[in-house]
Amino acid sequence: MKTLPLSVNPPLFIPFIVAGDPAPDVTIDLALALEEAGADILELGVPYSDPLADGPTIQRAAARALDGGMTLPKAIQLIGEMRKKGVNIPIILFTYYNPVLQLGEESFFALARENGADGVLIPDLPFEESGPLRELGERFGLPLISLVAPTSKQRIERIASAAQGFLYCVSSLGVTGVRETLPETLGDFLREVKRHSRVPVAVGFGISAPEQVAMLKEVCDGVVVGSALVQKVEQLAPRLQAPDEREAAVAEFAAYARSLAAPLREAYSSR
Amino acid sequence: MERVPNEYGRFGDFGGKFVPETLMLPLEEIEAELDKALADESFKQEYIRILQHYSGRPTPLTFAPNLTRQVGGAKMYLKREDLNHTGAHKINNAIGQALLAKRMGKKKLIAETGAGQHGVAAATVAAHFGMDCIVFMGEEDIKRQELNVFRMKLLGAEVVPVSSGNRTLKDATNEAIRYWVAHCDDHFYMIGSVVGPHPYPKMVREFQRVIGDEAKEQFLAREGKLPDVIVACVGGGSNAIGMFYPFLQDDVRLVGVEAAGKGIDTPHHAATITKGTKGVIHGAMTYLLQDEYGQILEPYSISAGLDYPGVGPEHAYLASIGRVRYESATDAEAVAAFQLLAQTEGIIPAIESAHAVAKAVELAREMPPDETVLICLSGRGDKDVQTMMRHLGAREGEDIATVR
């Protein structure tokens, strides 16, 4: 099994899906399909009732998953099942802080390690509040992925120099969700972050088109695609849950993921 | 008692900044400017001047002789925040934050609102200072408080209906924060209560403590001593902190009253400190209503202003060290107190404030006549009259006068 950090030549394709959306067994099939489609890392979102960093697409996905009874412990155990079914790429758990607190921080890391998770990302736990969890992560061998945003400015150096696993750059102001355009200053921002980071620098939030991926591959080490894939899951949800249509629907999902990853693989020249 | 919050925005174990990275710099900027403003005599003078000449402060301290006689115990006093411009204590904070926004060169305000009182206060100061204002409000609350929605629109604010979750204050706050994340470069987020990430709980307290500062002086002048008990309602808890804070070092019993809805042994309440557990909501570590997996539960109260699953971190702290006692009053108790105050004193309280009246009456009844109870009457009840008509069974066309 591969572990973090990974080689970034070619750049990493990092898809995001929500655990239990539309159903736990479907999530396993989608994870297998994503690995097959060339995913380098899987970000597995844990559904939360009040996802402050997420736009409507992921809010709806979280609501679907919660309606199906998904919880943080079940989402972690889903990783264990993915491992049994043959998912080999590193898996990052993306969860808000409150569910981690209620499970207990040590129990959380222990359960995550036991089930084969490779890292943790908590979008509402900024650097200043993350000290204890960072240490726990080190003890359990699970890096706590840090985020930097366009507003981070003088904070970039501090956050980037302490980053573990990879560094997640938020592309633009705002919550997750498909965006038509990315800010013109994004390239400068990514170059600035890369200057301070010893780990790969991935960019996410709003990336939904192969053209955007193609543009970004020159200035970062990886691309996270979330809402666009989650939207696809939403659209395919009825078929994904119909036994005789699931296989075709998963294949359609995989083809879509492959189209997003393709620009990263094309004519990639080492920098 | 230690000085709170500390440099990390912590009140003991509570508070802090649990927000997306994008908001960390805006929060740091607000914190730095707030500290400068609070140390700036001219800022304070401007704030007080506007409170006096625009909002009508100081608000009176009113003795309630008929209520006192009817209850038959301690003397009862009301701090009349209902007499503020816009009808509630919310304007104190809105003026303070608008002045800070102006100081920071921001001309666009974002606000969330439950009952609509903070939304109206935000829309009002936006008009006063020539700023834009966008208010997020749950669809359910929009239904409960249509009068306030129209007031906000009259004042020139944009009201955005929020359809996620239970469609109340929690969801409106989520949406306001999401909007702020996208627009933090040129918008100022004006939180309406002592909740949210640092420095909001401290900032809102500093802009509401005028309630307690005034009350203390007025009470001493009137009674020659401090009150024995002070009672205030607690949703997020801004009127309560504003009232309690100047009395924390004094020998005064402080009682916060949460909304017990249909009863704290049912799932339909908003009694966060009474029944909640420790966790993170809207950027702060505090007590909240949540399930065993950390998903936030939907609260319930007849009062849109108390219908919140969290509570200000300073209240969580004051509860944890035992300095303030937190109790609760049900919908039915609040409605009875609403009618009682209207009929004995000719004052129609906000249904939120009626929760404090209910608990105060209960406490005063057991106290001797030479002792005193001070109630923070945080707002007036005009906005609740429609809800009350429905609640008390009056229908259009029926004789409202027969409603008891």
* Cα-to-Cα separation, first versus last residue of chain A: 27 Å
Q: Biggest interface, which chains?
A: A-B, 39 and 36 residues
CATH arch. level architecture of chain A: Alpha-Beta Barrel
Class per helix and strand makeup of chain A: alpha/beta
CATH class of chain A: Alpha Beta
Secondary structure tally, helices of chain A: 11
Q: Please outline the major beta sheet of chain B.
A: 6 strands, mixed
Number of strands of chain B: 14
Name of the CATH homologous superfamily of chain A: Aldolase class I
**How do the helices and strands follow one another from N- to C-terminus of chain B?**
EEHHEHEHEHEHHEHEHHEHEHEEHEHHEH
Q: Determine Rg of chain A (CA atoms, Å).
A: 17 Å
Termini separation of chain B comes to 47 Å
CATH architecture of the largest domain in chain B: 3-Layer(aba) Sandwich
Keywords (chain B): Amino-acid biosynthesis, Aromatic amino acid biosynthesis, Lyase, Pyridoxal phosphate, Tryptophan biosynthesis
Pfam families (chain B): PALP
Function (chain B): The beta subunit is responsible for the synthesis of L-tryptophan from indole and L-serine.
EC number (chain B): 4.2.1.20
